[in-house]
Write a structure and sequence with these properties.
The protein has two domains: 3-138 and 260-305, Rossmann fold; 142-257, Rossmann fold (3-Layer(aba) Sandwich). The chain is α/β, with parallel strands linked by helices. It is built from twelve helices and eleven strands. The radius of gyration is 21 Å and the shape is elongated. The model has no long low-confidence stretch (mean pLDDT 96). The protein binds 6-O-phosphono-beta-D-fructofuranose.
Length: 322
């Protein structure tokens, strides 16, 4: 191997830069040249490469976002886009590629693998919805951001004896919401994996009030069958009968911003290093992820064809602890 490339794709995640740094420094240590791809798969299609040496990735370990930029490329989903990307790689004499990203990004990576191009993935998404990994880069930092918001909302909720609804990210996966609910002591949690009846949420909030609680917090994942906007509308419509209304906070992209915490910097450093290790061993078409504290390589085919199940025991725990 002489020249490899690295790209970040999909929604950014705190810790992506630490992963880029690890790829570059371990790659250079193996005697390779490392090229950064600007702007995810869009940059790959258009051949926008920049050489990255060990000093080029200095001072980025603690920075959020991604120095390479990211994109959600529609063109790369097409065969034409993928062929153009392969041509760009070929023209730049790049022999293999590391893709740092979540589900959609690893689907793209698998497409290149099927054409026979040597690829490895690094598991990075705040959603934690990737099969083959217990926890992905960015989750821990995003969770702490959500938690800080919940703690702050709890104090004002207590002062006013109010019910608050907090929406966190998670398109198809309720991991972030469930963990934020457990760590933040929420009265109720609404996730995409469990269909919810708004009346049950109203019951949980009423019961919190009856128990003498000064606050009532509901954490909702954006992809739930009733997200914050839908629940807000429901509670407004039934305000008189239910006897209370909700204050709504949608955290949105704040959860993806800011500096990564220690956990994500360390995980990203390990996974970036594991990715170059897999390339060196010619173990292509795999995703570097962490399972039970060990760094493992799971075939991308398995990763993209299996849903990551939510831990039912944690759903039960959240109910008991409310
Ligand atoms: O994939 C991570 C994620 O943050 C999801 O939780 C969210 O649904 C989506 O990205 C938002 O995407 P965008 O930044 O493109 O609006």
């Amino acid at each position: 191997m002489k020249r490899i490339a690295v790209l970040t794709s999909g929604g950014d995640a705190p810790g992506m830069n630490a992963a880029i740094r690890a790829v570059v420094r371990t790659g250079v240590n193996k005697g390779w040249e490392v090229m950064g791809v600007k702007g995810g798969y869009e940059g790959l299609i258009n051949g926008i490469f920049t050489p990255l040496g060990t000093r080029d990735v200095g001072g980025i370990l603690q920075r959020g976002g991604t120095i390479l930029g990211s994109a959600r490329s529609e063109e790369f989903k097409t065969e034409k886009g993928q062929i153009r990307a392969l041509r760009s790689l070929n023209e730049a004499s790049i022999e293999s590629l590391i893709v740092i990203g979540g589900n959609g990004s690893q689907k793209g990576n698998y497409a290149l693998h099927k054409y026979g191009f040597p690829v490895v993935g690094v598991a990075s998404t705040i959603d934690n919805d990737l099969y083959g990994c217990d926890i992905t880069i960015g989750v821990d930092t995003a969770l702490n951001i959500a938690l800080e918001a919940i703690d702050r909302l709890k104090t004002t909720a207590s002062s006013h004896q109010r019910a608050f609804l907090i929406e966190v990210m998670g398109r198809d996966c309720g991991y972030l919401a469930l963990m934020a609910a457990i760590a933040g002591g929420a009265e109720s949690v609404v996730i995409p994996e469990v269909v919810v009846d708004p009346e049950k949420i109203a019951e949980a909030l009423t019961s919190a009030y009856e128990k003498g609680k000064a606050h009532a917090i509901v954490v909702v994942a954006e992809g739930a069958n009733y997200n914050a906007t839908a629940l807000d509308a429901y509670f407004k419509e039934h305000r008189e009968r239910l006897g209370f209304d909700l204050r709504v906070t949608i955290l949105g992209h704040t959860q993806r911003g800011g500096n990564p915490g220690a956990f994500d910097r360390i995980l990203a450093s390990k996974l970036g290093a594991a990715a170059t290790e897999q390339l060196e061993r010619s173990n292509f078409g795999v995703l570097a992820g962490e399972v039970k504290g060990e760094i493992v390589a799971t075939p991308l085919e398995e990763v993209i064809n299996n849903p990551k199940e939510i831990d039912k025991a944690l759903i039960d725990l959240a109910k008991i602890l409310d």
